[in-house]
User: Which sequence fits this backbone?
């Protein structure tokens, strides 16, 4: 059964799909977004009930493989030391994200020029700056002007509360003379556009029932829908179909009842994230594209970048109120961001200071670390850690390597029978050295902040939540999948707007840049509407 | 044995053993005003949680039965009646302790008596949240004085 053709079909209602839908809405084109997940009900988020911490081991877990939600598809990540994390719903992974919202730096787009590694992006910071500003207004970003690590930028709201955790660490950074700054956060710190301010509840990774954290189901989507964009949930796209002439002509999908259906479209946009997008392209094989759609370069699914993470936690004598405040947004440091070859690696990393754990997570994390015995010593162990930890994650720039990839698993399928993605990933020598360096520096600053002990995990095994590089952009069709505004070189009415298009990863969380790019692509599409496919 | 229905709730005997085991895993602490995990009623939580953990439940049920049998054969009494040292010695030999600990910890640290004793409010984090003090942004003065740190590109 086929339905009425639409002008633009966006697949995926996450961070990027929402931004593009909103951007294109004022064209009054017939725009449809298909999403395999559903609208979330914020009143039912775990933070509203006493068992909220335990839910992170259940239906609000980080991995789609263990949550047991039918909206998810499995990911075979057994070939990677870093497990994939994502969420499938209207809002996509922003339902779970920490909303740490830094920008790339000008140099991040030109690492080949600066450091002779990887490739330069075909676009630059100045081009994206207005879109970063627009995104900050739409998402409601908080932060503080004047950071010496960045060019001047627009931040609409005052920074999140530092709390004892932030101030304790800030003093440590100051003692060492290292850079730090309040984090840019996609979290409202005051009433903003009908959204309530953050109440420091600390459940950000399980959804924000307050509506303070900018997941796109409460930011871009209501605006886009009001302006006429339609969202069809519980539609899982299996493949993109092509005409004789090699142009995309729509999709085949499964509806909520698992019935196979077709949807025709003049323009198809992929916004399924750095894993879902290559999966769909590779699963769209035809006689014109036997190796997967838009894959004449052979680069679809290649160059997967994650950002290797480390987590380094300090144990302090004094109580830190550390379960209060936004989980991943506090302060950050870019002291070791730029290349210094004397360190034995190129490029660098950021520190993102975290809040501590709740009582359940303290017990389970302590158990994992072999520090939470049963028996007589249990209470001492728990009281030493609960409300007495503060620490950070390290975000390392991941350089693109063709061997790190997404392919189709030959056996594993989702509940509709669509092949699941399979991840092959190894840590490069450069990343391993960077992790080692960062852990040593993290311990140093924790001790300078007053920690009596430090605990490090590197690489952090569950931190595959930044999904980038698997359909990279570039000017040359032989070495890239999409052009500088997201249009596939091989299929001129097919666009990619999620993190797949990243050429390099920088050493900051990607979502602000993903959305700024989506807004830029939207503007380019609007400017070129008359000759979009030339 | 293979006909055993593991879906059923724990029997009264099993619950007694489990409660006693839980009190060993997390014993009471007078000084901290904290109950033992058994005394706090965590067995009911574990029972419910294990009903969703279909692979683990038989392991625990069997483990509790074996523990009782060993208590009787070695010490001639039920596990609950043993001395602290005897209980500890037996538990140290049991493989099911580690997976049981996970559920015991989750149940214990969301138990109302425990949460109050830890000084936390008896309510979920939302919708009330937590008050925090104003940030001391004067800590940034030294950072503000730093020269620009990001690299600019060659023209
Ligand atoms: C725990 C966690 C913490 C994070 N913290 C941060 C952070 O602090 N800062 C930051 O910048 N980023 C963070 N991220 C990453 C951030 O969430 C992602 O970068 C961002 O959501 C990616 O946007 P996207 O549009 O590319 O994809 P997503 O937001 O993942 O959306 C993709 C959507 O496409 C849908 N889809 C996929 N395939 C199909 C199909 N075949 N048919 C129909 N629909 C499909 C999915 O259901 C999904 O809803 C975090 C992520 C996680 C999981
Ligand atoms: S800490 Fe703030 S942003 Fe995070 S869940 Fe609570 S209210 Fe939302």
Assistant:
């Amino acid at each position: 059964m086929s339905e009425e053709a639409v002008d633009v079909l966006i697949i995926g209602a996450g961070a990027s799909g929402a931004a593009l839908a909103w951007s294109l809405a004022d064209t009054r084109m017939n725009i449809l977004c298909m999403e395999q997940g559903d609208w979330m009900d914020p009143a039912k988020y775990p933070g509203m009930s006493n068992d909220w911490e335990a839910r992170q081991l259940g239906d609000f877990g980080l991995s789609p493989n263990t949550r047991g939600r039918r909206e998810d598809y499995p990911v075979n990540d057994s070939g990677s030391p870093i497990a994939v994390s994502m969420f499938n719903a209207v809002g996509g992974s922003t339902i779970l994200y920490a909303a740490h919202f830094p920008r790339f730096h000008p140099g991040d787009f030109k690492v080949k020029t600066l450091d002779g590694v990887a490739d330069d992006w075909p676009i630059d910071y100045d081009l994206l700056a207005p879109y970063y500003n627009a995104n900050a207004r739409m998402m409601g970003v908080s932060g503080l002007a004047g950071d010496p690590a960045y060019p001047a930028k627009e931040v609409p709201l005052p920074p999140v509360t530092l709390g004892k955790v932030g101030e304790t660490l800030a003093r440590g950074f100051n003692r060492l003379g290292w850079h730090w700054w309040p984090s840019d956060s996609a979290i409202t710190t005051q009433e903003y556009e009908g959204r309530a301010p953050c109440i420091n509840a600390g459940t950000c990774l399980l959804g924000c029932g307050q509506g303070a954290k900018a997941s796109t189901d409460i930011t871009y989507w209501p605006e886009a829908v009001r302006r006429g964009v339609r969202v069809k949930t519980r539609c899982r796209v299996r493949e993109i179909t092509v005409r004789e002439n090699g142009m995309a002509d729509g999709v085949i999908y499964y509806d909520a009842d698992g019935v196979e259906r077709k949807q025709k479209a003049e323009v198809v946009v992929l916004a399924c994230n750095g894993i879902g997008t290559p999966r769909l392209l590779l699963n769209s094989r035809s006689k014109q594209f036997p190796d997967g759609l838009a894959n004449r370069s052979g680069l679809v699914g290649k160059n997967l970048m994650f950002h290797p993470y480390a987590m380094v936690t300090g144990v302090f004598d004094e109580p830190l109120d550390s379960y209060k405040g936004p989980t991943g947004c506090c302060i950050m440091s870019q002291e070791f961001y730029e290349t210094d070859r004397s360190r034995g690696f190129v490029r660098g990393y950021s520190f993102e200071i975290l809040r501590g754990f709740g009582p359940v997570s303290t017990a389970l994390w302590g158990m994992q670390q072999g520090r939470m015995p049963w028996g007589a010593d249990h209470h001492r162990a728990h009281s030493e850690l609960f409300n007495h930890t503060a620490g950070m994650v390290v975000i390392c720039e991941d350089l693109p390597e063709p061997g790190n990839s997404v392919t189709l698993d030959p056996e594993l399928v989702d509940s509709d029978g669509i092949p699941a993605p399979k991840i092959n990933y190894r840590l490069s020598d450069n990343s391993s050295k960077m992790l080692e360096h960062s852990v040593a520096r993290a311990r140093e600053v924790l001790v300078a902040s007053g920690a009596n002990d430090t605990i490090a995990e590197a690489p952090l095994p569950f931190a595959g939540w930044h999904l980038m590089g698997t359909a990279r952009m570039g000017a040359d069709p032989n070495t890239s999948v999409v052009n500088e505004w997201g249009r596939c070189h091989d299929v001129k009415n097919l666009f990619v707007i999620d993190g797949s298009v990243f050429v390099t990863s920088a050493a900051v969380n990607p979502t602000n840049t993903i959305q700024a790019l989506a807004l830029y692509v939207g503007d380019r599409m609007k400017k070129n509407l008359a000759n979009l496919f030339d | 044995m293979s006909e055993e229905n593991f879906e059923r709730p724990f029997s009264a005997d099993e619950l007694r053993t489990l409660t006693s085991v839980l009190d060993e895993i997390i014993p009471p602490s007078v000084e901290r005003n904290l109950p033992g995990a058994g005394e706090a009623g965590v067995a009911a939580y574990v029972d419910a949680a294990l009903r969703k953990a279909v692979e683990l439940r038989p392991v625990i049920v069997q483990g509790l039965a074996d523990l009782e049998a060993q208590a009787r054969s070695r010490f001639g009494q039920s596990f609950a009646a043993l001395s602290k040292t005897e209980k500890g010695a037996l538990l140290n030999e049991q493989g099911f302790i580690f997976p049981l600990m996970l559920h015991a910890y989750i149940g214990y640290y969301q138990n109302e008596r425990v949460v109050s004793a830890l000084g936390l409010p008896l309510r979920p984090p939302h919708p009330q949240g937590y008050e925090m003090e104003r940030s001391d942004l004067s800590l940034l003065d030294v950072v503000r004085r730093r020269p620009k740190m990001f690299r600019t590109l060659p023209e």
Q: What stands out?
A: Residues 104 and 506 of chain A are 7 Å apart (CA to CA). Chain A touches chain B through 67 residues (CB under 8 Å). Residues 2-47+54-157+183-306+400-426+464-531 of chain A form a domain with the FAD/NAD(P)-binding domain fold (CATH 3.50.50.60).
